[in-house]
Design goal:
By secondary structure, chain A is α+β, with helices and mostly antiparallel strands. The first copy, chain A, has helices at 18-30, 48-59, 102-107, 132-145, 194-199, 252-256, and strands spanning 6-11, 35-40, 67-71, 82-87, 92-96, 110-115, 169-171, 174-182, 188-193, 206-212, 215-221, 233-237, 242-247, 263-267. The first copy, chain A, is elongated and about 60 Å long.
């Protein structure tokens, strides 16, 4: 399958960072035809888990043939490798080998992973010690979009780095999961997929017990926000297929006083 | 008139939201030739009034033939309709039918409004309950940019939702209006148009009485910031034709301790 | 040399500002083929020094033939001129004549500077008093990208405005410089170039004395963040060739309690 011209960018640089502009200039200088799409640049600094999860939730909704460049890279300049992963749906992911492709690798079928060793695609023959986004990831991503064969980047790898990442699961009549992050609206994003909710037998409009950290709540599992009164908390499946906790026309994290990265359990 | 290839996006998702990237991937997958322009993604969550006003101030400066997708959508998944509005200047506005097109409808001449019922343009035949930006608004907007006739989206509507919105006016020797929002520089943006200022007979460099909430000030109505001393407050007409309160090289909202959404009156 | 199709934008409007979208609509209406790249829109309001420095650090990494539009413009509507600067590497910079091109002018060789007086390229024949980004800078930048000859914009100028700007230097065994800004990661960005560090004879892994304002520290000058323990401060040369103070996997500004715009000295 041919590349589709789309290059998705995800970093923890901060949206205000001029380094994003530099990466785009490097890409556009390789080919003006590439459609660069910002996924987000506001992953919390160094939060590989959040980055890995958001990358997956975004990529799920990108068309096959898309290419991605991910730069969350606290190990820049050390011995960590730079890699490209190709998946069954013909997506390609260029990233540091630090676990940021863990969720992609878990859900999409991995066809091959290669180490980037060929310096012919790099911004300069010898990359800097502080900005591989410009020097390696952006230009390699751009060349892949232009249908450079993946094998040109370097040799196959037997394995790649993964972070400790366990999705929510249903066990002994309890759904157990974790809050990965809180979004702009205060919606609390969990790692509990709709399949787990189905396994647990939750039905719409059923009221369940929810425990987050040491706090306990009761709320309904509904189809959409408007199914509960304004200001009331609810559980629903978000647009990427994961359970979220929301408040209709409100900010769930504020209303429920929830921090992210807490454990969550749900039971009838 | 043909569409001009431009698709303006305005949401309350927050600039850091990966859902914006998903909408762009949906659009670019329909056609790589569409020029997507972010207007803003930082309308306050659910603030239909601010969104409606900013959409108008932006669209005023876009060329005829432009298409817009607006997603401020607390009613997603409920019975609220999805609509397209076409205006006399041949702009098209795709949005939830929740009042966010109120200011556009008031100022541009509305040619027709249609309900989106044809699912052939949607992201998937059955839209989700939580993300119509991806499922309905982005793909319909993209197809309209490609000159799909507006009548293909669905049937004509007799009316559309409007919010309570009254522009500033001149009455009994007083200009009465409202603060809609405070911008990045702390400039205080009112709903008082330059025509109202003209009706009131204000002339440049005239000092007037300004009352905001319960606070009273005197300041000059000037042509531009530099016409008063640094640190001094002033009134001027902004680049979209509305009265704003600014401080030369300063932050008016901080200096004057003003909240938005307050009433404002101006008199000689 | 021909223009390369790239138009870099740098402003202090704030990323949430719809005025950025208006500038892009003006540009795309002139030509859909222009590749607009956001450098940043979050320069602190009116901070000409930060803007001048970031513009240079970004432009350093853009390809020759690029065009830039910079709008940090507290003097809009006053008598300050609008200018275009062309540099030896065939870059062009459109900006208000208020010093924001000081660092570009210092480091790139200036070929010519012209005042924009020809109103044929403007958004409207008579520009507004509050938004020259839309009225002058964006459309002139777009026309230059389309290879309109620079001489068409207006007459040559003998000089242009500069701000007081002195780069870090090595003198009497001490490196003296200044903190220009703190970035998203808390990295402290100085105006001390790698050449000055070389003149001072600093070698990798050498521990030096650093004084910032009245605070004193000892830290190693290293090649990259990972060369010190997590949580430890370090000095390194950033990807644009300037000395920065960082903390490995941490936020240097928070850890060291540093404000920007402070003086810094480094000695053995």
């Amino acid at each position: 399958m041919k590349r589709n011209g789309i290059l998705g960018l995800l970093t923890d640089f901060g949206h205000e960072s001029y380094q994003i502009g530099i990466m785009k200039a490097v890409i556009k200088n390789i080919s003006s035809d590439i459609d660069i799409i910002d996924i987000t640049h506001d992953i919390r600094p160094f939060d590989i888990e959040e980055g890995a999860f958001v990358l997956y939730k975004a990529a799920l909704n990108f068309p096959g043939g898309s290419t991605f460049v991910t730069v969350i890279d606290w190990g820049v300049g050390t011995s960590r490798k730079a890699i490209v992963m190709r998946t069954k749906n013909d997506m390609m992911f260029v990233a540091p080998d630090n676990g940021v492709l863990t969720v992609i690798g878990k859900h999409f079928r991995v066809v091959e992973v290669r180490e980037i060793t060929n310096n012919e695609f790099l911004y300069s023959p010898v990359p800097s010690h502080t900005f591989h986004g410009r020097d390696i990831f952006a230009p390699v991503g751009a060349h892949l979009v232009l249908s450079t064969p993946i094998k040109a980047v370097g040799p196959l790898m037997d394995t790649y780095e993964v972070i400790r990442y366990e999705e929510g699961h249903f066990d002994s009549n309890i759904i157990k999961g974790k809050i990965i992050y809180v979004d702009h609206f205060g919606n609390i994003q969990t790692n509990i997929s709709s399949n787990v909710v189905k396994d647990a037998g939750l039905v719409h409009n059923e009221v369940v017990k929810v425990k987050i950290g040491s706090k306990k709540f009761k709320m309904a599992f509904v189809e959409t926000y408007g199914n509960v009164e304004e200001g009331k908390a609810l559980l629903d499946i978000d647009s990427s297929g994961y359970l979220e906790i929301s408040v209709n026309k409100g900010n769930a994290a504020n209303v429920l006083k929830i921090q992210d990265k807490e454990e969550i359990t749900i039971s009838k």
